[in-house]
Amino acid sequence: MPKTRLPLLKEDKHVKKMSRKITVILLLLFFALLAVIFFRSSVSRITEINIQGNKYATREELLAQSGLVVGGQFFAASANSVQEALKELKTVREATVEKDFPGVVNITVTEFPAVAYELDQQGTLEAILSSGAAVKVNETGIAVEKPILTNWQADDPFKAKLCQALAEIPNELTSDISEIVPSPTLSFPDRIKLYTRSHFEVITAISLLKDKVEYLNQVIETEQPGLIKMLEADTYVPFIAENEDKEVTQE
C-alpha cells in the first residue's frame, strides 16, 4: 500500500510576531517593576556621607554645595558633578568623591592654604586663603608665621593678587613678614609696604615680590634694621644711621 505524506502546516507568522512582541513587553514591564522596587528601597539610598580634609569649610557648607543628603538617591548625581560643584567654593582647591555601593559616599577635599590674616570690621581675626577667600579662624588655630593684612579693601583686585603671590613663595621666605599694607603710586599701583618681625620696613610691589623676596632675606640676615626698597632697583638704608645723624644735630 503506497505511503501518503501529510501536508506540512504553515506556521502562522503573524501569531509568531505577536508572541515576540508580548514577550518583549512583559520583559520590559518586569524590568521596570524591578527598577521601581529598587529605587524605592533603602538599598538605593545614601546611608552615610564621610568628609575629610576640610579645615576652613564646614561640613554643612560642603554638603549644601554638593547637593548630597543622607536618604537621597545614591545614583542621582555622578561623582564628577559633585566634585565640580565642590570646587566652586572659594575654600576648595580639589575634591575627590568616591561612591561605595550600597549607600556610602566618601568626600576628600584639598583646601587653599592660608597665606595671611586680617581683622574684619567687627575685629574678628580671619584667615586669608590663596584664593582670596576670608574664613574665620576661631576653631582652626593661627599660624604665627603668617603676615597680617592691614587697610585692604575687600574688593581690591590687588589683594587677591597678593594672596596668589604669597602662596607661590616658600614659607621660610615670608615667615619674618609681620604686616603688609597697600601703598599704591601712579608708577606702581600695586606697591605695598611690608613690616618685618626683625624691625625692617620694606617697600616693593606685588608683581615684584616673588622675584625680590630672596634679596629681602639676604639683607635681613646680614644687616641691621633699616629701610629696604625693592622696586626698579634694590636699596637698603639702616635706621641706625638716621638716629646717629639726629644725635649729632642735637649736640
UniProtKB/TrEMBL annotation:
Compartments it resides in: Cell membrane; Membrane
Alphabetical UniProt keywords: Cell cycle, Cell division, Cell membrane, Membrane, Transmembrane, Transmembrane helix
Chief location of this protein within or outside the cell: membrane
GO BP field: cell division
Keyword Lipid biosynthesis in annotation: no
Pfam families linked to this entry: POTRA_1
Membrane topology reported for the UniProt record: Single-pass type II membrane protein
Source taxon at top rank: Bacteria
Record bears the keyword Methyltransferase: no
POTRA domain span: 44-112
PANTHER family cross-referenced by the UniProt entry: CELL DIVISION PROTEIN DIVIB, CELL DIVISION PROTEIN FTSQ
HAMAP family noted in UniProt: DivIB
Function comment: Cell division protein that may be involved in stabilizing or promoting the assembly of the division complex.
Family designation: Belongs to the FtsQ/DivIB family. DivIB subfamily.
Protein name: Cell division protein DivIB
